[in-house]
Amino acid sequence: MWLTYLLPTGCLDPPAPAVGEAQHLTRKYLMAMTSRRSVIAASAGVAAVAGSAGVAAADNSTSGEKTTRRKYWDPITAKNSVLVLIDHQPSLLAGVGSTSTTNVINNVVALAKCAKLFGVPTVLTSVLADRGGKLLFQIRDVFPGQTVYDRTTLNAWEDVRVRRAIEKTGARKVLLAGLWTDICVAFPAFSTLDAGYEVYAVTDASAAITAESHDMAVRRMVDAGVTPTNWATVQSELQRDWANTATVPGVAKISKEHAGAFGAILDLEEQLLDQ
Length: 275
Hints:
By secondary structure, the protein is of the alpha/beta class.
């Protein structure tokens, strides 16, 4: 079959008359090769045009025009971000099976303290608090007197008060943590993506009823474009440089209280330095 591809139609027909047969076949073969060269030349032309367009797009990206290419190092800051803590309530905490409830409480309180230390705007929200209980007191203690938007919607973004509170900050990055991961985090994650925000899911300050539910939710969010992170990474992005000495004592305090063995090591260092 490959021979029929290389030769033009008719080349495998019964032979031409004996007189001039070689010349006849040669002429048809040259015509076929000329046609193939035309196709190749046309393809090269299309590729060249596409390449030029790509170069032009690259040039535009360096000339200050907006592009859709993502920046991979674009740290979280108090000016570009908002934290939304969703439904960390006793009733939902009781259903957690993906990790220990002690772990979730530790991590979300650490995250809340980081936001408070660095001045990251924070939106607090609960669902049906009259039945499921108020937002955990450990979170409320970090933000005393702050409004907690109590909703009926499963998707926090669909509550107009929550949505307006997020929009009011002017942030372009939304950090989400909540119970449960597959519903109360994933649903608003998709909505805020649709609204044009960069979305982060703080996965260790979130949990679900099973490990599979949590893991599948994280995978689904990542597939949609959400960036998974954890409270210690958020803290590190906010600190960014140890030369920013104003927040170093606060970072050390949060780490000692919530970073387990690392916190104990920090405390030991301080003991040695005090000697």
